[in-house]
Amino acid sequence: MRMLDLPEYSLYEVHVSGEERKLGARAFPLFVQLNWSKDDREGRFLLKREGDKPISAKEAIKEQSDLNRRLSKRESKKKKKREKEADRNKQNKPEEPKPEEKVRRRDDGAVSP
Fold it and tell me: Which residues pair with 15 in a beta bridge?
């Protein structure tokens, strides 16, 4: 019976490039993560049950992005306000004149086309 079996889990190191490595019993995850900065890499840790079907790194990253935390009311208001401000700035931004329409000023203050 599967329910009475104690499942075994393993910790995996998954990188954006798709590389996946199982950490050994003597590996320290904090030291592994600290070494990522030396190699200019980014990664995640993934806890998987042994015997389950393998998932790709892209699927793991997608699942992680689905688990993003929900913004608080204050944070969502700030975000909405920033988006409105950005939209307003886009609409009110005057278009730059075309190069042939630009007016050049000489050193003596006179305007030349």
Answer: 43
Which neighbouring-strand residues pair with 111?
Answer: 105
Cα gap 60→14, rounded to integer Å: 8
Long-range contacts of 97-105 (CB under 8 A, 24+ apart): none
Q: What is the pLDDT of residues 94-107, one digit of tens each?
A: 666 555 555 565 56
Is 112 within a domain? no
Reduced to 3 states, what is the DSSP secondary structure of residue 24?
coil
Selection from 75, 69, 44, 74 nearest residue 59 by Cα: 44
Q: Does residue 103 fall inside a structural domain?
A: no
Number of domains in the chain: 1
Would 10 be classed as within a structural domain?
yes
